[in-house]
Amino acid sequence: MEIKKILIAIDEGPTSEKVMSDGFQLGQSLKASMALLSVVDNTLVFTDGGVTPQEMIALTKNDFKERQKKLIKEICDGENIWTFVEEGKPYEVILKVADEWDADLIVLGTHGRTGASHLLVGSVAEKVIRHSPKPILVIPTR
Questions:
Q1: Which pTM value belongs to this model?
Q2: What's domain 5-140's superfamily in CATH?
Q3: Which strand (E) or helix (H) includes residue 39?
Q4: In the chain, what are the domain boundaries?
Q5: Residue 103: which region, alpha, beta or left (left: phi > 0; alpha: psi -120 to 50)?
């Protein structure tokens, strides 16, 4: 199997730098095209009344775009990388973008939560693994 396109899914957390860096290094070594994906989980958008949920989603999308630009500049030295900022259930969006962009590999991180926090938060990585027909590289970020 030849890997020509790698989709790197990151969240807003501090561990996204490690996932991005590891995914980028792999992509460089394989001479693959790379895309960075961030997903606004629109099922978790709450507001205090001063901002509508749609405004909050728009603000969050903008924050993700700025974060992606910063990471690309810091980690990839401005190399040409596709970027996607979408909204929806993260695992569903990751699978959809991987399919539409025709990725050969999905790279994502896992926080390694267990017990109650895993049950409450769920694991995006676990759902992607369970439902993806594509190979996945999971980067532990604990």
A1: 0.89
A2: HUPs (3.40.50.620)
A3: strand 33-40
A4: 5-140
A5: beta
